[in-house]
């Protein structure tokens, strides 16, 4: 999803004409309004925060439990996304199989689906009475109301981020080097390991960070599917939603923690894609 | 590609225009049409919607608009200046927030009570019979989080009975508890009597005497700053009238002690 990848800085390519944007001046009014529209709510939250209580609020027992659970589940979900998503993106980008567009649309569906719908769908798949729930229960893998359910929900919503951004990278990188390696006698697995994956690395890194961020922010599917219990299923977004009722200041403090994480994520992905551009 | 972009811009512009229109234009039906806005606790959705229809038919030209949400959210919106004509709270604390802010016309009136009951799937797979059964090991029990009113009531009952519950989930809203029982994810859930009644055949309610330890008070008041404060008062009167009380009793609400 990172658009910076697809937009190489025009200034560096066109050299001396960097000052001329070709944009009418009136355009900056709605542009500035758009930027303010996003910025203002964040500023409002910062202003509303009682900073003398910030430290105490984000280190309370329930906050720490939520933060720890969120990090643990988001890392697990990101790993699951890598295991499932990298092969999927490779298959979609490199192989022309029948129904490929359909498969791609289905995989990307959680991207546009309201998360609560995803939660309902997961409930009827992995829930106690769901399609697979009974089987999993027999196998000794209870899903309902466990941390596993949180990871499943997060993986469900984060996977398309990884696939869509990786597929874009794969198309940009192209198949030149892979074909050369193959003509030199490398086996497919060797090509994948020695050529494709190394070329993919910068894109893979930013895709990973993005899907981690999406997993960290997951709310709708988790609350519908996994439940809410401190230390087990109550991740940071659920804790924020609950605290909003009990102690609004705590909700703001935890929200600002997530804003901070989001800012770091954006900086990291930008850095990675810029570096990728200078390599290319 | 270009025509497609142009089409999507046109669609966006149209959507924005619709939103803007929705924000600014008064309700259709001429200049004398009035709209009274009632902010009511989510648990009142069924009963108040019915009473709103009755109000509209006895007040031609008036439409009743409801904002159903958690009492806490509503109280917050009202104190922040939301244009409401009447406020019905599902607990005393949030009503106090509004009356203390000097926004209410007169004292809030108690109009209904509600109490907890145990909701189980119709075939009661975990064979729950009493409140103490909820603490049995292996039972997947879902309750409200202590921070929300139904959870506070749950804690009160726990303290009164000395039974310690070990829920698998503490939900943010009573409807979330109910839906987990309906989906049979949970073996039992603690919800309000009215929730079980409105859920029909999808769940079974098991009343327990200890629920009397945590009676939930529903109170209502007209607001002074609303655009139709007089109509707001008339809606409050309807809720307190014999007609209003019958609708509430039919839905499972208790009558407040006089």
How would you characterize this protein structure?
The complex is a heterodimer of chains A (280) and B (258). Chain A has 280 residues and is mostly helical. Chain A has a single domain (53-279), classed as MetI-like fold, CATH 1.10.3720. In chain A, 75% of the residues lie in helices and 0% in strands. In chain A, helix 4 packs antiparallel against helix 12 and helix 8 (147-173) packs across helix 10 (188-217). The relative contact order of chain A is 0.15. Residues 1-16 of chain A have low confidence and may be disordered. Chain B is an alpha/beta fold and 258 residues long. Helices cover 40% and strands 21% of the residues of chain B. Chain B has 9 helices and 10 strands. In chain B, the strands form 2 sheets. In chain B, strands 2-1-3-10-4 form a 5-stranded mixed beta sheet. In chain B, strands 7-6-8-5-9 form a 5-stranded mixed beta sheet. In chain B, helix 5 (149-161) links the parallel strand 6 (141-144) and strand 7 (169-171). In chain B, helix 3 (71-79) packs parallel to helix 4 (92-100). The longest helix of chain B is centred in the N-terminal third of the chain and has 23 residues, at 2-24. The interface between A and B is medium-sized, with 19 and 19 residues.
Low-confidence stretches of chain A: 1-16
Intertermini distance of chain B: 71 Å
Strand content of chain A: under 5%
CATH class of the largest domain in chain B: Alpha Beta
Question: Might you state the CATH topology name of chain A?
Answer: MetI-like fold
Strand content of chain B: 15-25%
CATH architecture of the largest domain in chain B: 3-Layer(aba) Sandwich
Order of strands, main sheet of chain B, comes to: 2-1-3-10-4
Mean pLDDT of chain B: 86
Largest sheet geometry of chain A? none
